[in-house]
Amino acid sequence: MIYMDNAATTRLDERVFEAMRPYMMEQYANPAGTYSFAAKSNAALEHAREQIAAVIGAKANEIYFTSGGTESDNWALKGVALANAKKGKHIIISAIEHHAVLHSADALARDGWDITVLPVDAEGAVDPAALEAAIRPDTVLISIMAANNEIGTIEPLEAIGEIARRHGVLFHTDAVQAFGHIPLDVEKMHIDLLSASGHKFHGPKGVGMLYVRKGVKLLPFMDGGAQEKKRRAGTSNVPGIVGMGAAAEIAMAQMERVIASESAVRDHLIARIEKEIPHARLNGHRRNRLPGNVNFCFRFVEGESMLMLLDAAGICASSGSACTSGSLDPSHVLLAIGLPHEIAHGSLRLSISEETTMADADAVVDRLLEIIPRLRSMSPLYEDFVRHQKDAQ
To answer: Cα torsion for 355, 154, 198, 202, to the nearest 10°?
Structure first.
C-alpha cells in the first residue's frame, strides 16, 4: 500500500504511542481528582500544554484541549460571537474555509449574525486589502485558515493579523493543516485564536486544542464541569492529550528536516505530472503551499473513478476534504478558485508525509499514466476534444 492521504489523517508515531500507553493502563486517574494518583495525570496534562504552546510561541495557560479541530473551530466562532454580541454581529471568513468554519458561520447567520465571505484568487489566497475593506465598525471576528486542506495554499497570516490588530478585531485561524508542518508564531502573526488537531501530525485522533490569547472574551461551548479553567467542560482525554503533546514536540524538533524532505517529493510529483500527463492543472499556489500537498485536476476524467482505480492498485488518495468524501458535489474550494464544475470533478489530492519516498511518488505517477488514458478513452467529451484539435490542425 502507498498512503498519500495524510491531509485526512496520519499514522500514529510509535514514540507517541509509547508516551500514551501508561495513561491508558497504569496512570489512568481522572486529573480532576484531589488525590496524589490524580495529580500525576494532571501533571502530564500540563506538560502537554507546554509542549503544544511551544510550537506556536504561546503561553501554556493559553492552550485549551478539545476533541479535535471541528470542536475548536465551532468554539472559536460561536464562543467569540456570543461573548462579543454587544459590540457587533459581523464576522469575516473566506470562501475556502473548512466546513467546520463555514457551517459554524451558517449557524450564526441563522441566529442573526452577518457573515462576509471573502473571495480568493485563482491560487486560493485571500487579498489582505479586500479583507481590510470588508471590516466594519460592528466586525468582531476574522477567521481565515492558515493553509487550505485541499489545495495547500498558505494564507498571508501576518498581514491579516496586522490588519485585524490595527482595527481592534479578533483574528482566528484554523491551523489544522499547518500546525506542526510549517512555522507558526501567534505573537508575530497577531493571532488571537488558533485551532489544531492531533491526528494531522502523527498524534492520536479525537483530541485537539484551541489557543486563546489571554484576555480574549470567549463563552464556553459546552455546559458541564469546571475542566479547562471552567472554559471547556468534559473529562480530560489524558492519553490523547499526552499523545498530542508528544507529537507536537517531535514535529517541532524535526520540522526543518521534514519540510525539506516533503517538499522534494512534492516537487518531484508535480514536475512529473505536468511533464508526462497532458491537460493536467495544478491547483493552489505553486510555491507558497504546504510541503506535503499536491492537488491536480485532470480534464475529461471523473475523480471518483480515478480514486477507485488507484485504490485497486493499493494507492490511498482523495479528491479533496475527507469530511466531504461522500458528497457528489464538486469541491467548494475548487469552485472558489474559479474552476468550472466539469474540471473540478476531476480533482486528485495527494498528501504526503516524511515517510513518503521518491519511489512511492514515481509508482503513483506511473499508475496515473495508465489510469488517466484509460478513463479518457471512455469519455465522449475527450473524443470530441481530440476531434476538434485534429480539425483545427
So the answer is: 0
**Distance set, CA 148 to CA 18, 333, 337 (Å):** 31, 9, 12
The DSSP call for residue 318 is B
Of the candidates 248, 208, 198, the one whose C-alpha atom is nearest the C-alpha of residue 52 is: 248
Distances (CA, A) of 174 to 23, 76, 117, 273: 29, 9, 15, 30
- pLDDT given for residue 358 in this prediction: 98
Residue with cell 484541549: 65
Please state, in angstroms and rounded to a whole number, the distance separating the CA atoms of residues 210 and 216.
Answer: 12
Q: Residue 385's pLDDT is what? A: 81
Please check whether residue 315 is in contact with residue 359, taking contact to mean a CB–CB distance below 8 angstroms.
no
pTM of the model: 0.95
The confidence score (pLDDT) of residue 388 equals 79
Pairing mode, strands 208-212 and 193-197: antiparallel
pLDDT of residue 392: 73
Query: Residue 175: helix, strand or coil by DSSP?
Result: coil
Q: What was the pLDDT predicted at 326?
A: 53
Q: C-alpha cell of 377? A: 478513452
Place of cell 516524511: 354
Q: Give the cell for residue 335.
A: 469552485
pLDDT of residue 322: 52
- Which is it for strands 2-3 and 315-316: parallel, antiparallel or unpaired? parallel
Residue tagged 471523473 (cell numbers) = 302
SS3 call for 382: helix
Amino acid 28: pLDDT = 96
Span between the terminal Cα atoms of the chain, in Å: 43
Q: Report the phi/psi class of residue 202: left, alpha or beta, with left for phi > 0 and alpha for psi in -120 to 50.
A: left
Mark the ranges of the chain whose per-residue pLDDT is less than 50: 324
Whether residue 7 contacts residue 293, with contact meaning beta carbons closer than 8 Å, is answered with yes
Q: Which three cell numbers stand for residue 358?
A: 521518491
* Confidence at residue 328, expressed as pLDDT on a 0 to 100 scale: 63
Annotated catalytic residues are: 323
* Other Cβ atoms within 10 Å of 89 Cβ, number: 18
